[in-house]
């Protein structure tokens, strides 16, 4: 990192070790004389009440960066709209509908490509001081909205049935997932039910210079409809 002014740290995927790995990056940046560290974190409403405890690693990393003495830019990202096909089981959603424990929880989904563009735009600016951007879509949506959108685009009837978390977790295990993975997925979606992803900010629109892609257009592209 010698001679580098700004380092963008993309959150690691080794969930058990990533906080330690993130800390190594921050330590190396400080030692090399880097001026600023940027980090891709998460836009969650109440970290202290999360069911999915793995998300806490993001906020532990934020705290470590803040304590490092380096200037920082934090990008707190909402759930990718791109993850919807994975959540819904791909094209099978058109036959069996949506069955997840998200209740009436809402998410201000945004496309990953637009988040990346916004992050690049932010880092290209000359910035003094510390910055935190909340990158979300301009509107939040429930899974009822997702089902309605899929129905409109496909001319098929796609229903959403809020699942019981315990039953949903048991079904995931029945599909061959380990108990640990099933618990994580269930916790992630249960946090949506609890309103953790229902945050809206103008930051993404400001950094893009345009309105972020809404749900209808995003799903249309993701499902090639």
Description:
This protein has a single domain, classed as NAD(P)-binding Rossmann-like Domain (Rossmann fold). Helix content is about 45%, strand content about 15%. It has about 220 residues and is of the alpha/beta class. It has a four-stranded parallel β-sheet, sandwiched between helices. A two-stranded parallel ribbon has the order 4-8. α7 (about 165-175) packs antiparallel against α8.
Task: Give a quick set of tags describing it.
alpha/beta; 8 strands; 225 residues; Rossmann fold; globular
Short description:
The chain is of the alpha/beta class.
Low-pLDDT regions: none
H/E order of the elements?
Answer: EHEHEHHEEHEEHEHHHH
What is the CATH topology? Rossmann fold
User: What structural category characterises the helix and strand content?
Assistant: alpha/beta
Please give the CATH architecture.
3-Layer(aba) Sandwich
**Number of self-contained structural domains:** 1
What is the overall silhouette?
Answer: globular
In which range does the helix fraction lie?
Answer: 40-55%
Rg (C-alpha, Å): 19 Å
Strand order of the largest sheet: 1-2-3-6
CATH class: Alpha Beta
The termini sit apart by 44 Å
Largest sheet: 4 strands, parallel
Mean of pLDDT: 94
- The strand count comes to 8
Task: Classify the beta-strand content into a percent band.
Answer: 5-15%
Separate helix tally: 10
CATH homolog superfamily: NAD(P)-binding Rossmann-like Domain
Topology, element by element:
Layout: E1 6-9, H1 18-32, E2 36-42, H2 56-67, E3 71-77, H3 84-88, H4 93-96, E4 98-100, E5 106-107, H5 112-124, E6 131-135, E7 141-142, H6 143-154, E8 160-162, H7 165-174, H8 179-193, H9 203-208, H10 215-222
Parallel strand pairs: 1-2, 2-3, 3-6, 4-8
Antiparallel strand pairs: 5-7
Helix pairs in contact: 1-2, 6-10, 7-8
